[in-house]
Amino acid sequence: MSQTAWGIIGAARIAREQVIPAIRRADAGEVVAVSSASGKAGPYAEELAIARAHDSHEALLADPDVESVYIALPNGHHAEWIQRAARAGKHVLCEKPIVLGPAELDAVEAAAAEAGVVVEEAFMYRHHPQLRVVRDLLADGTLGDLVALEARLHFTLDRVAGAGDLRLDPALGGGSLLDVGCYPVDLFGLLTGAEPDGVAASAVRDEPGGVDTRFAGVLRYGDVLSTFDASFDSLFRGTATIIGTRGSLTLADVFRADRTDGIGALVLETEEGTRELRPEGDQYAAQAAAFARLVRAGRRDEEHWRLTRYTTRTLDRLAAAARPDR
User: Fold this and answer.
1) Are 17 and 103 found together in one domain?
2) Which helix (H) or strand (E) holds 9?
């Protein structure tokens, strides 16, 4: 089993509830340190049985026992700390979206190449076996040629309880497109293997100058029409439908299969009838294990990096298309 020594940059809930337990389930190495700039590192480390707590991210990057870092900071801080980590010789798994635009992605990629470290984006859904099933059904012709893709990801963000939530701060890369809409966009790139030829988009904002709290987009990949919507204003829903000339495939929870104990729920409909598929996997643990393998091999996942480029550039185009001043 490939392993690496992990440091957690940012005492975030996703690290506590998902990523750190997944590293341990996957036996992908030991979490040896955590850092927080807001004084949370000590209690966080004690709660999660992490050996060392650093009161600054700089101190964690200077820790000689840390080989790799997981970055769980606000979106607007990702590019800066990926580059700092790379210059410190640390490999990086960074929470999605990895950066806020193509220019930041170029800078991050250059820093990683210069330092000779592995940098990967933490889109955990890519690692669930249900995505392999989908790709196999497309490759073997079961669905025929792609006609349309549909996806949505919504959840309820309590504006009162979440007052001051980073996802509502435009200066930190907040908004529903970057927080949840990025998943459908990434999925479309994964399934088509391309960037869209054209995009159109519309957004709803709680207040002028605020972040988008509801977002919808239409993307054209050659002859394939793709639509998605995302918001902070609905009960959780994370579905996708793939429509081909010979059949369709519906995924009940394509992005968060961890919510259903790792069991995917796919419904395949063709002229031969309807069939249910239930691939099972641990997407967060698979992500941690895959990253540790890349670190030990000393190379990045080129397919995932190509997809990260597609997604970053497409999100930038969608945001521009939905600007209020257009």
Assistant:
1) yes
2) strand 6-9
